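Incident log, structure service

09:12 report received: a user says their structure output differs between two submissions of the same chain.
09:20 pulled the input from the user's history:
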Amino acid sequence: MSAPIIAIDAMGGDFGPRNIVQASLACLSATPSLHLILVGQAPLIEELIARHSGVDRSRLRIVNASEVIAMDERPSQALRGKPDSSMRVALDLVASGQAQACVSAGNTGALMALSRFVLKTLPGIDRPAMVAAIPTQRGYCQLLDLGANVDCSAENLYQFAVMGSVAAEALGVQRPKVALLNVGTEDIKGNQQVKLAASLLQAAPGLNYTGFVEGDGLYRGEADVVVCDGFVGNIVLKSSEGLASMIAARIETLFRQNLLSRTVGALAMPLLKRLQADLAPARHNGASFLGLQGIVVKSHGSASVQGFQSAIQRALIEIQENLPQRLHGRLGELL
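09:34 re-ran on a clean worker, output below:
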């Protein structure tokens, strides 16, 4: 297999290139086979790289882009009005075969619109879906859609289930259990779209569909892939991250209240730090756009250096697993 090449939108996100350049250099150092293309305002990127010593420039390329898509910019404006944006140029590198994946922390709506326009969807897929790993009691669950499609038909949910199953297989899960997120596990529960999607999934050959799952079942690890529309999925994701941060803050406050609690906290802190690291949003940062004829990974706009590294690692795994081609083959069987 040829060396993996990832195009990085260096100007996206809340912090611009500062964290992105640092994360990119850290990934280059950690993965000797990796090649990166940093896309954005070249003088600024070069200035940030110059602050670091020992950078292997043979595996790092800078491509200039004169425009930047703002985080609050309309997708239509980004699509029509900024042909030389860092996001568009990074996606063009994937479309032309100069890179195998694109990673961006920029405007989600713009990234989805540009990805569909530049890379196109796989045959049989109406809409790409965003998927990310959610920690559970048994490991991880692939949750989709996370916000790309707030209104979905039963057919959309069916396609998401197929793509999520293939993505879980690529991550090493044997015969992934697929479930629909619902307000109850009984067949009579749910809205019309969910009920219709359940009927389609029950008839799908080769798909390990296990039925409905509720929100608490998601975290118990009752399924390897959980499917919902983007409206619900985004709320679940953001609520999960907020809850994890709130619990960590509450525990720290409790352990500082008095001498006894500080003593107990000192004894328990190593275990709590491990738990906090395991559940930290940064570790699971990076949502894939499944269903495209290319690999695109969306990082949180506010991602830390560690968080953006996780997004790059997700793209690297999908390159190594040849995910779009695997999806294309399985979609032909299941759709």
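09:41 both user submissions now match this output. Likely a transient worker issue. Closing.
09:42 reviewer note: The radius of gyration is 21 Å. The mean pLDDT is 89.
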